[in-house]
Sequence to fold (487 residues):
Amino acid sequence: MQPSMLLPVIVATPMIGSAAILGLPLRRRGVEAIALASSAATLIMYCIMLLAAPHTVVETPGPRLLKGFIALYLDDYGVILAGMTVIIGFLVVLYSVGYMDPGNQEHPVTTGYRRYYSILLLFMAGMLGVALSYTLTSLFFFYELTGICSCLLISFYGEYDSFKGGVEALILTHIGGLGLLAAIVIAAQHLQSYTIPLPLLAKLGPAIPAVGALFLIACLAKSAQVPFHIWLPDAMAAPTPVSAYLHAAAMVKVGVFTFLRFVQYTLPAGVNVYGPLGILVLAAALVTMYYGAFMYMAQRDIKRLLAYSTIVQLSYILLALSFAILGCGIHGVHAAIYHMWNHSFAKASLFLAAGCISYGLGTRSIQALNGLSKRMGYGIVAAAWIAGAAAISAIPPFNCFYSKLAILATGFTGSPITVAAAWLALIESVICFIVFTRTIYMVYRSEPSETPAHATPPAWMKIPLIILIAFILISPYIAPWLGVKPW
Fold:
């Protein structure tokens, strides 16, 4: 079987699981069993697709659905985002079996299991659709689907802060959706079709800067970059597994990946076609990077600290794409997707460790990190936090060291503008290093905080942490095998 023929099956599998959870009369354990089975089946299908594909996948179109409105294909970058989606998606579902429980000290959960798992699986399907979309209309459809799912999941607890966070996310990311829709309209006028394959973006000619600016709006809104950043910290009212998925492999990665698609297919037209777009992208990345770094200092809530960290790491990805536009070519695109891949495992590890803390201690205060490694039953949690924090701090041999190095190296080999931007990014890396290595010291060296541990995270929550620690160490070596060579 051609690997491209598996694409509709991969996207449909979590959708079928979502529908089954909503349609069948199930109790909690039945819902969890279907969610686990569906996410595991999706992961298995992905692995089968990889084994069936050649070593390097290049534009393998799949079948078109609904007269081409929905069309899927396989390439190196889609393989990376789909891999993040299915691996971390399965781990989040597994983790949720323990977290979404009456024993949770921060948010005891006794109802809403069907709603939670059905939307989470639909979220996974939407992300897979974004990763594998072949046409602009298909990309737009799945772009908006992820926004709806994230709004519903952020609002899950039904409290004021939850609704506020969910509505903010929906409104601000929908502005990005309108930008993407406008880009499709302009492209359709030039190419005389609304079901435009992504590779045809290179044929837009003089319309490339205008379409690129609209793609940039879609990117900034979805990826919580300045000035659309405010929704992401407020989205921390969501259940922590949702936050982990949203930050690590879903929702916010949609924005930078959508812009990556634009850059990927317009680069062959020549860097001289972009006009001032590259400077605009670079400026947006640097402003967001330093704003997020400044906001590190004021955070006393673990999840909000991680939210600003995500905003900053996404700006690194956007910076790499600006380097590509400003003359560094495909190396900038490779560095961007490489950091997207590595960051996903580090950030998932940090969020799921934070969820274990709030589960057992009933708090999200950063002081709860004090002496975490010395608490009975929290050794794995402490190790997951240390590994994730070391990765985000770009400490070798942890994964984000390699991808940040790839981004900086790309900038330093370019024009004076990219060299200056790379120096500024390097300075921010020092700030990030100071902030997150301080949390490592808190976890490992400090005495435990006075907050008592009322519960110990169950095995359902610890198994994903062990797997993520392993991925933090090995993910830099997996990406080249999947076809992305950042050097």
